[in-house]
Specification:
128 residues, six-stranded mixed sheet, 3 helices
Length: 128
């Protein structure tokens, strides 16, 4: 992977983490391509979305996260694996969702094409 591509993906991940905490989504949403392959693990919208619909679903689902009572307050990167066009981030996170305590383990895969995020896959499990 070229160094500038890795920097772009790492910055997008930091923007994602900031949005999950603060609700400031504009920088992350600006990094998305016009079409995105999107996998989301959480109900009620869990599923696989592609193309423009994938981009729109990211904005719809993530736009609900980041305010009081519905945000992550701590994200600790556990592992990072770099591929030819993607980086896989594994983290342990905690915060609150629907005003209830939350702790989870996440795997976020961000891939890039034409200097935009073209793939966002998230996998999650309760932290043990």
């Amino acid at each position: 992977m070229e160094a500038n591509t890795a920097v772009f993906i790492e910055e997008a991940y930091e923007q994602l983490c900031d949005g999950l905490s603060t609700g400031n989504w504009q920088p992350f949403f600006a990094s998305l391509g016009d079409t995105v392959d999107f996998i989301w693990p959480y109900p009620p919208g869990a599923g696989h979305y592609t193309g423009a619909e994938g981009r729109n679903k990211i904005i719809e689902f993530l736009g609900l996260i980041g305010g009081d009572g519905n945000r992550l307050t701590e994200m600790r990167l556990v592992s990072k694996t770099t591929g030819s066009d993607r980086i896989i981030f594994e983290d342990l996170s905690s915060g609150e969702f629907f005003n209830q305590p939350y702790t989870g383990r996440h795997c976020v895969v961000l891939a890039v094409g034409d200097v935009k995020i073209t793939s966002f896959h998230e996998y999650a499990a309760p932290a043990s």
